[in-house]
Amino acid sequence: MQRPKCLSRRTVLAQGLRAWPAVWALPLLSPQRAHAGKQVEEPLIDSVRSALSSAIHQSAPPIPAFAQDGARQQYEGWLDSMAQRLRARKVDALEHKEFLPTVWYESKRAGLDVALVLGLIQVESNFRKFAISSAGARGYMQVMPFWTRLIGDGDPATLFHLQTNLRFGCVILRHYLDTENGDLFLALGRYNGSRGQRAYPDAVLAARRTWEL
What we know:
By secondary structure, the protein is mainly α. The chain contains eight helices and two strands, in the order βααααβαααα. The termini are close together.
């Protein structure tokens, strides 16, 4: 699938993350539990920290832009197909109308396969926006709060915002892929805090098949 036009730009004006209304923090009163692993907080050299922080803070709306009508038609076909699959999983229709364009945009922005990201979300949170694991990981992609301190604004409550959670999750997975020289098995293990073990990568790769078009 063709990337949106914005992905070819190497220089994007860095802007701060939006100030999210406090209402998004309210579901913390009755969080939905998840059974994710625990990403390990590892020291980051300054250049990596700066690059990740820049990637998180580059602000752009999740509106795909296409150079050709054929690419747009493929995207619209993908939206229809994925919406049907989410409905079968009882995911709220209003939620997935915003969710699908955003997960597509953030996946492509990070250079990731969208089906892979959807498979990871299925395994991590089963598409629950306010899921919290026993280790404290949050949201769709079960991002550990320490990442907001390392490369964000320090407020873990923002991880319950749709685009913020997907932005962090995709940037982190891209970082792990780069760290592991493109080895998806090891990168997924790092994401789950179980590097070198088969259970989690196998689960994500199996789930990815559900979301392939």
